[in-house]
Amino acid sequence: MARGRGEPRSSVVDDRHRQPVGPVDEPYLRRADAALAADVLANAEFQEHLLGARPTEQIQLDSGRIAARWLTFSNKSYDVVYTEDRTGSTGRLHHIAFATDTREDILRAADLAIDTGVFIETGPHKHAIQQTFFLYVYEPGGNRIELCNPLTRLVLAPDWPLITWTEEERKKGQAWGLRTIESFHTHGTPPVG
Question: Total domain count for the chain?
């Protein structure tokens, strides 16, 4: 039987005393967005020219190369992201993102991950690009999962300008000074090597 929002998933057990410490209310997930590690510009242009996506933000390196691009098919600020794979590989999944209704859902997910032994790669924190509040974890198969609250803005203007972030701006890390971790640019599935 499916659980509805607010129904407890289970009880967390304190292993020291093997006593339930209360119900765990997992975050409510609304939809899934995907981000892929690949040839950024070729994949983004495929989405734009053949599928009608609109670019909203991108990272342009000092060399002129586009290292990441955020695209939308709707009024959301993004539906799909292509980011450069620093291993040089193509066709790998970077992560799957599940949107939550609130930041509190992400904080609950972080508590649940700690309580159940799920590896947290980074977060909770806020991205500088898109301003999305996030938590990245690895699921048992090794795929990166992002829980995010991307409700900070909608793109309603048909002439929304493409925002370009420079390499220098990206060196500053995430919104509140958190450095972007190296595995964010190299971990993907299937594994390399």
Answer: 1
Q: Is residue 32 part of a domain?
A: yes
**What long-range pairs does 14-23 form, CB within 8 A, spacing at least 24?**
none
CA 152 from centroid of its chain's CA atoms: 14
- Report the predicted TM-score, pTM, of the whole model to 2 decimal places: 0.76
Is 126 within the bounds of a domain? yes
Q: Render pLDDT for 88-123 as a digit per residue (tens, 0 to 9).
A: 888 888 888 888 888 999 999 999 999 999 999 999
Task: Provide the sign of the torsion angle of the four alpha carbons 49, 51, 54, 59, taken in this order.
Answer: negative
Q: Give a yes or no: residue 41 inside a domain.
A: yes
